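Input record (one chain):
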Amino acid sequence: MIMIGIAGGTGSGKTTFALALQAAAGEDSVIISQDSYYVANTHLSFEERLKINYDHPDAFEDQLLIEHLQKLRRGEPIEVPIYDFTAYVRTDRTIPVRPRRIVLVEGILVLANPELRSLFDLKVFVDTDPDVRLLRRLTRDVKERGRSLESVHHQYLSTVKPMHEAFVEPSKKYADLIVPQGGRNQVALETVAALLRQYLDQGRSPRRNGEMEP
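The corresponding structure, as predicted from the sequence alone:
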């Protein structure tokens, strides 16, 4: 199994890059988003949940994500939580995920936690211009998450930008590969995709003793 951590600021193109790799790798790959592992906060009111800094490392239940990735390493299936972005709460519903040969883990802070970072065989940081990231976040949050333009703007200035500078950007130094322009960087995408296809092809090729590659 190969686990690849894909980090980068909000709106940087992490998900696009991960989806492109998954398309290249085929059905023996899966994407797990760190966003699914936001702390549940079911005990808090909606008003209280609105005040949480969702770009700080403490907003994520990394330990649960780590446990799930370790289970996949052992060949065990997991139940990935489903997070409701409109209600700012983790639901009691889950998505079953079985072990795959390629596991892509994407999120703004997947390289910031040393224990989580140590699980990855390849660490990627998607680096995109701040103005582009802001525009993408505005579009996504308004269209897909039911946020107002004013709330997104306020959140960006009050938490997103300072947390990016404090935690996300510094994690770039741990990356094995820095990818400008995210999923639009065809050279980087093809390079990583070629490595994944080579890994998968090795697994399908019989060894001299008749066994399959791990």
